[in-house]
Design a protein that fits this description.
This protein is α/β, with parallel strands linked by helices and 313 residues long. The protein contains eleven helices and 14 strands. Helices cover 43% and strands 20% of the residues. Helix 3 runs parallel beside helix 4 and helix 7 crosses helix 8. The radius of gyration is 21 Å and the shape is elongated. It binds beta-D-galactofuranose. Beta-D-galactofuranose binds next to helix 2 and strand 11.
Length: 313
């Protein structure tokens, strides 16, 4: 049998050791928002796949798009005495009471993907995710250069009350304020869903017709739905109407290569490894960084073709 170099053996042993607290397997409760987009599917797969690789006992709860389901899941994790709770909070507010219950039970909470609004930051151990304000700013600055600061914009917003929708909307509005020729003429939520983006875009086209020059979508699923609506209206997405979006899922990067989308700002969902690297220090009650942001980049016609083969989600 081919011998495994001792370094690789040590690496796998260290993963196995970190999967155990004392002589029992580490139990993690993960309350996911739902399954609304391709981004979410990739995030769930990263969290599940990496837990399996590291030998963690992952209790997965799909919130199905409802905060009350996530709250119920957290209470169930507390009752099961998990070692750590991971929460991807669907909206920003309403978490303090249940996070106080987790704290009373002595169970640390990791926030992933989305942030919460709370006056008591001690209710969670740390946050791991992307900087949504930066993503919105990057999208707006790219657009201003692309259209020389001129054009009527329709905005497809994400889930109402969610951190990405709030921050991407705020950042984009702040950035385009520097360009009086850029104006948001309509804005509505498509709930981060492809069908939602298509339906809202159909309504915008009926209401505004060819006045629309630009679509700003808070995620790629809605942008791709909007592109379909634009094509069904006999127009060319990416040419007749500029589309700028966020997530950089593979299908959107391909749409940029094909000229149906003009720009997508990455929001990397594959942070299972980063989350699980924190589990050991948390269980050992060692200090961990309060906030850690994933690195995100931007894809447009200048670089999409060069990266499409390497896209992992
Ligand atoms: C962003 C994440 C958002 C994605 C959407 O971190 O919360 O939710 O942008 C997803 O695709 O539905």
């Amino acid at each position: 049998m081919k011998s495994i170099p001792c370094l690789r053996l040590l690496f796998f042993l260290s993963l196995a050791v970190s999967a155990f607290a004392g002589d029992r397997q580490v139990k993690i409760g993960f309350a996911q928002t739902g399954a609304e987009s391709a981004w979410r599917t990739a995030n769930t797969n990263s969290m599940k796949g990496e837990a399996a690789k590291r030998g963690f006992d992952l209790k997965f709860a799909d919130g199905q798009g409802k905060q009350e389901n996530q709250i119920r899941a957290i209470r169930s994790f507390v009752a099961q005495r998990v070692d750590v709770i991971v929460l991807a909070p669907i909206v920003e507010t309403g978490w303090d009471p249940v996070l106080r219950e987790a704290r009373r039970a002595g169970i640390p909470v990791i926030l992933t993907d989305r942030t919460i609004q709370t006056a008591d930051e001690s209710l969670y151990a740390c946050f791991i995710g992307s900087d949504f304000y930066e993503e919105g700013r990057m999208a707006a600055d790219w657009l201003a250069r692309k259209v020389n600061g001129q054009g009527a914009i329709v905005e497809l917003q994400g889930t109402p009350g969610s951190a990405p929708a709030n921050e991407r909307r705020r950042a984009f509005a702040d950035a385009i304020a520097k360009h009086p020729g850029l104006k948001i003429i309509d804005s509505q939520s498509g709930d981060f869903r492809r069908a939602g983006g298509k339906e809202v875009m159909e309504a915008f086209l009926k209401k505004h017709g060819r006045a629309i020059r630009i679509v700003y979508a808070h995620n790629d699923d809605m942008a791709l739905g909007a592109a379909q609506a634009i094509e069904e209206a006999g127009l060319k997405p990416g040419t007749d109407i500029i589309l700028v979006s966020i997530d950089a899922i593979r299908e959107a990067v391909q749409a940029v290569v094909d000229g149906r989308l003009n720009c997508t700002v990455e929001c990397n969902p594959l942070f299972g490894p980063k989350v699980y690297d924190i589990i050991g220090p948390l269980i050992r009650k060692e200090p961990v960084p309060k906030k850690s942001y994933n690195k995100d980049e931007l894809f447009d016609a200048t670089n999409a073709a060069a990266v499409i083969a390497q896209r992992e989600y």
